[in-house]
Design goal:
heterodimer, A: 229 residues, mainly alpha, MetI-like fold, B: 368 residues, alpha+beta, OB fold (Dihydrolipoamide Acetyltransferase, E2P), 2 domains, six-stranded mixed β-sheet, five-stranded antiparallel β-sheet, 36% strand, globular
């Protein structure tokens, strides 16, 4: 039903998305916790920076990532000399771009569920001898789990769909960085590729819908689990 | 043991107080809402940092602005019981109970054993349940158990009965009293219910606008016309301590000896010799200038008028002396003029009813 290139694009998408969520989600949880519970100078700036990918054109984010993580960029040069790793034009770079674009969505989902937790529970945990990290892992994180699950799934779906930032950072290399949207774009550029494009588009749509339905179902289950008095 | 002398500014409002409490006693912080009770509790717990003063718990300085020392709440071993229980909704009752127990620092003595706490508070049947399936009273019982199992050196109770209905309140108060008898522990109890104070407190600290206006045992503070806050209350009265002297043979009445003051009450479910506390509401005491006859009231006591105080509601609160004890009576201003009541005069006090609190078969002192 799918050609080999199309299969490859599907697998590449899944790998890029999974890696982006695996690294991005813990960072998103930490950021969400900081924004929800932290009181520090520059909080508004952090908030704005986190949300920047939502309002900037993806190509701008991609370009900024290139400047930072490119071979000539400060972080890119260090990565190359220290770990012999390149992000540009690699599948890892595609994950980075997709993860940055999906980051605000993940932070938002986690933050909302942390903000819904009664701070009084954390105070009660303090009086029972739980330190800051302990409280986070024993009270805050379990109670925020519906939001964390939603963040993982919706973030993953958003990574699968990311186009502009990924193509800017990682280009369109089949088998390495060619994700589904990039493959669709490639098919449309090829004469007679409309049928392939349609197949891939339908595939993308099914994955996205399945992810959203799964997020909804898991979220409801988790909320029941954590049912409040 | 608590030695508290500290203050903090909350916007334009300043709470600054000093009080001390001996070990294993219950101190009630009493005052109207906004008097600073909860702020004081937060200072004691370490949730707030004082801007002045020193707090010492069992000989250990936990906060001192002179040296900049401020032990955080999680290191003070102070358990905090809240109005709404605050059980962790994602943990079952057993794991809620064990939350503090599992976090004890090495070397902390386990004075309150798990089995004993579960038994005293009747939690055995609840262990596998989840917080959302518990009633308000059950939730508060689990919260008390969880607080005790954290092996605190001080238990703070922030209006623990306020969100319960009257029967539940009585039930939880009973469990608190059992816990207090079983487990020697200092408690600080915040409330604006005088009934709760009289029932549970060894000492009371009266707060008004962030300051301590009076402190002492309940028996010292109630039963006076000049204690601010208390004398103006509709449920002002005198607290007397004594024991059951005898039960009348017909079986309908008990005679009490309250520190030399004899009182007759409807029969008590307490053995002869049992210690009792009696609260005599000022509104339940009438005054007669001559010994009355042919009355249904059984308690007619010769008393001496000690002091009079005019209250804002137009009534006059009168402090009466009898056999070394004090009673309060509330009468109208016109009655004071007509009967010519003044300090030093000998009259008769007619006590209509008495609220009794005995270790066995006691009931809650009148709820206003």
């Amino acid at each position: 039903m799918l050609t080999e290139t199309e299969w490859t694009a599907l697998v590449t998408s899944l790998v890029v998305g999974a890696r982006a969520v695996a690294i991005g989600l813990p960072l998103a949880i930490a950021t969400a916790w900081l924004l929800a519970r932290g009181r520090f100078p520059g909080r508004a700036l952090v908030d704005a920076l986190v949300h920047a990918p939502l309002v900037l054109p993806p190509v701008v984010i991609g370009y900024l990532l290139l400047l930072t993580f490119g071979v000539q960029g400060p972080v890119g040069r260090w990565l190359e000399s220290a770990f012999d790793t390149r992000l540009v034009f690699t599948s890892a770079g595609a994950s980075l771009a997709a993860g940055v674009m999906a980051f605000p969505i993940m932070v938002r989902a986690v933050r909302l569920s942390i903000e819904a937790i009664d701070p009084g529970l954390e105070l009660a945990a303090r009086s029972l001898g739980a330190g800051r990290l302990d409280r986070f892992f024993s009270i805050t994180l379990p109670l925020a789990m519906p939001g964390v699950i939603a963040a993982a799934i919706v973030g993953f779906a958003a990574c699968l769909g990311e186009f502009g930032a990924v193509i800017t950072v990682a280009a369109n290399v089949p088998g390495e960085t060619q994700t589904l949207p990039l493959a669709i774009y490639g098919a449309l550029q090829t004469p007679g590729g409309e049928a392939a494009a349609l197949r891939l588009a339908m595939l993308s749509l099914s994955i996205a819908l399945a992810a959203l339905l799964l997020a909804d179902w898991l979220g409801r289950r988790a909320r029941r689990w954590n049912a409040r008095p | 043991m608590i030695d508290f002398d500290a203050g903090v500014a909350r916007g334009a409002f300043r709470v600054d107080a000093a009080f001390a409490a001996p070990a294993a006693t219950t101190t009630a912080l009493f005052g109207a809402s906004g008097a600073g009770k909860s702020t004081l509790l937060a200072l004691l717990a370490g949730a707030l940092r004082p801007d002045r003063g020193r707090i010492v718990l069992d000989g250990e300085v936990v906060a001192d602005t002179a040296t900049g020392l401020h032990r955080p709440l999680e290191q003070r071993r102070i358990a905090w019981l809240f109005q709404d229980g605050r059980l962790f909704p994602h943990l079952d009752v057993a794991r809620n109970l064990d939350y503090g127990l599992a976090r004890l620092l090495r070397g902390t003595p386990v004075r309150f054993a798990r089995e004993r706490v579960i038994e005293v508070l009747g939690l055995g049947a609840l262990l596998g349940r989840w917080p959302h399936s518990l009633s308000g009273g059950e939730r508060q019982r689990v919260a008390i158990g969880r607080a005790l199992l954290a092996q605190p050196r001080l238990l703070l109770l922030d209006e623990p009965l306020a969100s319960l209905d009257a029967p539940r309140r009585l039930e939880i108060l009973g469990f608190l009293e059992r816990a207090r008898r079983e487990f020697p522990l200092s408690m600080v109890y915040v409330t604006h219910s005088l009934a709760e104070v009289l029932r549970i407190a060894d000492r009371m600290v009266l707060l008004d606008r962030g300051r301590v206006i009076a402190a002492g045992t309940p028996a010292d503070l109630v039963g006076r016309v000049d204690t601010p806050l208390l004398a103006s209350r509709a449920d002002a009265g005198a607290l007397l301590q004594g024991r059951v002297l005898a039960h009348e043979s017909e079986g309908s009445a008990s005679r009490l000896d309250l520190g030399g003051l004899p009182l007759v009450t409807p029969r008590l479910d307490a053995p002869v010799g049992a210690e009792v506390r009696a609260y005599v509401l000022a509104s339940e005491v009438m005054i007669a200038t001559e010994a009355p006859r042919g009355l249904s009231v059984r308690n007619v006591l010769p008393v001496t008028v000690l002091k009079l105080a005019h209250r804002t509601d137009g009534s006059v609160l009168i402090e009466l002396g009898c056999a070394g004890q004090r009673l309060l009576a509330a009468v109208s201003r016109s009655a004071v003029a007509e009967l010519d009541l003044r300090a030093g005069r000998t009259v008769f006090a007619l006590v209509k009813s008495v609220a009794i609190d005995a270790p066995a078969g006691g009931r809650l002192l009148l709820e206003p």
